[in-house]
Automatic annotation (TrEMBL):
<dbReference type="InterPro" id="IPR000182">
    <property type="entry name" value="GNAT_dom"/>
</dbReference>
<feature type="domain" description="N-acetyltransferase">
    <location>
        <begin position="11"/>
        <end position="173"/>
    </location>
</feature>
<dbReference type="GO" id="GO:0016747">
    <property type="term" value="F:acyltransferase activity, transferring groups other than amino-acyl groups"/>
</dbReference>
<dbReference type="InterPro" id="IPR016181">
    <property type="entry name" value="Acyl_CoA_acyltransferase"/>
</dbReference>
<protein>
    <recommendedName>
        <fullName>N-acetyltransferase domain-containing protein</fullName>
    </recommendedName>
</protein>
<dbReference type="Pfam" id="PF13302">
    <property type="entry name" value="Acetyltransf_3"/>
</dbReference>
Amino acid sequence: MEEIIVENDIVKLRPVQMSDIEAIANAANDERIWEHMSVTLLTQEAVENYIENAIKEREKGISYMFAVIEKKTDNIVGCTSFLDISFPHKRLEIGATWYNPTVWRSAINTNCKFLLFQYCFEVLNLNRIQIKTGHENYRSQKAIERIGAVKEGVLRNHMIRKEGTIRHTIMYSVIVEDWEKLKTRFIEALLK
């Protein structure tokens, strides 16, 4: 996949790179971020491994991780990824998204999702984008529903979390037939 950079006045998304270690470590340094995530990035070594793995997976076409840069500060405030990429089936997942709590409930997530959906539907010409989250991650579920994704169901006993407990996964999607209506909704929300 070619280098992808999408941006507007609020955020810039670009591929993560090794030079992002310090900035990502700073953004990731809050235990609250990792409560529902499959990784924990509270050490320099964890962040280095995270970025190295992301670059390897990007080179293999498995996934594509973006650094999320808040335009007003020019700081990395999180990461988000394309996962489960299947161009033959014209679909992918947007996930492994995390943000520093300073931007929770801000315009960052809405702008990121808008730019990624727009890229997926209007440049990559995909048919489906899926988003999933854990059954106990209510903040994430509300954020996904707020952007207009459709709840498709629950994958029971889908994953074992890092502490060994079972996670049921809530599955959401946006399909190409939803995009024009959703795009209008996004634009109205972003203009507020």
